Amino acid sequence: MKLTQLLLAITTAAAFSSCATPPHAAPGSVDHVVLMWQKRPGNTDDQKTLLEAAEPLREIPGVISIDPGTALESPRDVVDDSFDVCYVVRFDSEKSLRDYDQNPIHQKQLNGVLKPFVNKFLIYDVKH
């Protein structure tokens, strides 16, 4: 096999291996969906601050993942795209979610970063 063919085969295999389906939520895990409306809607600096504030939350015990993002504008009436920033946090258990609320890292981010920039929070918790 020529070197170029070998490199092509390796590249193709690597590309397909990265297309794996993400794992399903484990039984007993919890998704914590936090929708936020900014005090200054449309302010991109505030939005960036809110998105970056998610990073330290990854260190809290029981957090499997945290995915911050922004609203995707939609023409569909059933889609609420009025929020500015959203966190989707997956916990390994309901207990971890309950402990997270009082964790010092969470309290620091909530009171020191989020509340100063957020006018309204709406939260959904989903048990798997």
From TrEMBL:
Name listed for the protein in its UniProt record: Dabb family protein
Residue ranges annotated for the Stress-response A/B barrel domain, each copy included: 30-126
InterPro entries: Dabb, Dimeric_a/b-barrel
Keyword terms of this UniProt record: Signal
Originating organism: Luteolibacter pohnpeiensis
Leader sequence residues: 1-25
One Pfam family here: Dabb
